[in-house]
User: Fold this.
Amino acid sequence: MPIQAVEPRRLYRQVADQLRQLIDSGEFAVGDRLPTERDLADQLGISRPTVREALIALEVEGRIRIRVGSGIYVTDPPNAAASEAATDEGPFELLRAREFVEGAIAAEAALHIRPADLKLLDDVLRRMEAMRHPNKMTIALDREFHTAVAGILENAVLVRFIGELFDQRMNPYFERLSTYFENKESWQIAAGEHRAVRDAIAARDPERAKAAMQHHLRQSQIRFSRNFDERAVAKEVTQ
Assistant:
């Protein structure tokens, strides 16, 4: 048998494996409450976003139930053997990648913006701002805005790449995170961030456009990084 390269497992997967083993060994019984996100991060010596991704992975598998404002509880294991999602990238890894790539694209777009491009961005923003609550339509509009920014460069590969990166949020991890942290207020804040990107591109200011896009995607990470017992929209933090 030929030797195959060994790919290191994502850290959040290793954390999920460890917690799953503790549950299977009886360290945590069905109905028990797990330590808080913060406590787990401190005990494991890792970041809270990594713990968040591990917990979401276990909830998608049906091993735990996250009750906002109450805690994280062990549930009866699913009848069928738990299977991992097809993708191994976690939500925060994807958002960090988008922050880097789309920031560069926005900067370049500011140098090439044309009236027709601006008209398209304005049309997408108008429809986005008319939507009051996050739903499947707002996600589609979100995708349309980001691919429209890439489209300013008239490079089909970049448009497809940005679309494919965005589409990876359609996995079970992102969907579960969204049920906890996306709401009317968060959508309105995100819509305002999109408009800031548009205004910077329209001003033909590449540095401002890059900063606006990176700010938007960084704030998305922050919105998904709140404690499960926090009910208000996450406040902006200084990086």
